[in-house]
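Researcher: Before we compare anything, I want clean individual predictions. No alignment, no superposition, just each chain on its own. First chain goes here; please echo the sequence and then give the structure tokens.
Model: Echoing the first chain and its structure:
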Amino acid sequence: MRITTHMMMNNYRNDVEDAFSSMNKALQHTIDYRKFERPSDDPVAASQTFDVHWMTGLNNDYTANVTDQKATITTAEKVLQHVDKLLTNADTTDTLKAVNGDINSNNREVLANQLTDIRNEIVSQMNSMYSGNYLFGGSNDSDPPFQMKGDQLYYRGINVDTGKLEDGSKPKITLDQLTNEKTYVDIGLGIKVNKDGSINAQSAFDSAMPGISYIGYGVDADGNPKNVCSLLTKISNALKSSSNEDTLSTSELNNIQSYISTFRNSHDDLRNGQSAVGQKLQFLDSTSNYLTDVNLNLASKDNEVEFLSPYDAIESFYSQSYCYSSSLKVGNQVLQQSLMDYLK
């Protein structure tokens, strides 16, 4: 009888400890609403939770990338808007429209200086930075993309009109290649690599904004530069070098009007570039909304696989608490009777 009673007490103590442990675990669930504390508690739920957390982490990275790109491109868009305004002012005020052959030499020099000032401000704007990086350097955002050397404008060391280096030699990379540079950012489109090792353009976001793709480079069929800054330089120099007579000669006027015509075409190209930047922003806005929806879906999935509802957690606690209380009551009755039997 002593062995039986001793075994009964041990079994009872173990059962009570299990009941108390279950009640304590249920109590913890009412505090944090988690279905498990260790993966071994519920391996399936733990595995699903890990997957959801991994996908949420990736989605948060994509969201951060989109936010950064939106801020950068918004800044670039504002810069281009300002450049557009400068070009508009140059074309609608006395700066260009007054070049009609009737202004005297003194006024022509004033206009020439105004054009030079506008050119210099455009160069400064195209060297704008955001968050420590140059906006319009293409794949190189650590160095100023534009530099004036005398009256010649250079983009990343290459003359925007001739396509050559300062010493007259050919660069290793052409302006056409620089214009087509790509800098891809992962924003959750599912990056894919082509057979040649390049990134599929449809699977990532191209953040590169080469400055010459907006303000032009090279020359047109008439030999006029297509870069707006170079054109402003040409017009300014033509005004300064024209005769001291109050009236421009026919050849001088024809040259300036030819520059003005090319200038307006290049201005239209800049506006097309602005539209492309606006489309980038619209795409990023759409992607941002998509990522927000994905985050909401992942949060909902996480609630399903990792957390209990408050109702279920509280119900479980009361159930385990009842079991624990019942085990104590039953134990009191059984052990008391067994002890009396032993004494008899």
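Researcher: Okay. Second chain, same rules.
Model: Second chain and its structure:
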Amino acid sequence: MQRPGVLFGVCVLFVCIVVVVAWPRHHRIADTANLNSVSNDNTTTLTNAVSAASSIDDEVPNASLPDLTGNAVSIAAESDHALTVVALWNTRCTSCIAEVVAMNPLVKKYANRITFIALDRGDAPSVAQTAATDKAFASQVLIDETGGQAVITGDAGTPTFYLVRNHTIDGVGIGPLTTDQIETKITQVLAVE
């Protein structure tokens, strides 16, 4: 006898795949491959993944968030200058931290072409700074203390990263992803330039 949670998880996964496959804008990049590794009991993660994939063409508002030094940074403004990779994380999510660390080699490799931002959701600045320092994040760290994430989109789960260009989300990666997987998503978006 199947448990209701497993059936729900399979249904949500199917909807997510349909959303991505039937996507009307061929140049948008979404990642649902990693959903197969998610436990069928974790329906919240699957639901959030669907939310992230379905919000892929959202425009990023021109709001600002503080960095670790207190300076206000606008993700939308950053995306006007270069492709911007925004990874959602918090200190309670070890796989999120691993994904941000996996971006470190790419921060150096694409230094003049891509802006990398690690967007902490829900931690106090001092807590986020301690974690970012301990893990040697190469990405710029922004803080969303309330976890509201209005500066990106919806209620996507972590780890999720967004590829933003000209105020528009051009791609979503649902993680945790490795350095190679992140670079593949980046090169897919760059190929559409």
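Researcher: What stands out in the second chain?
Model: DSSP finds seven helices and eight strands in the chain. Additionally, The chain has one domain: 4-190.
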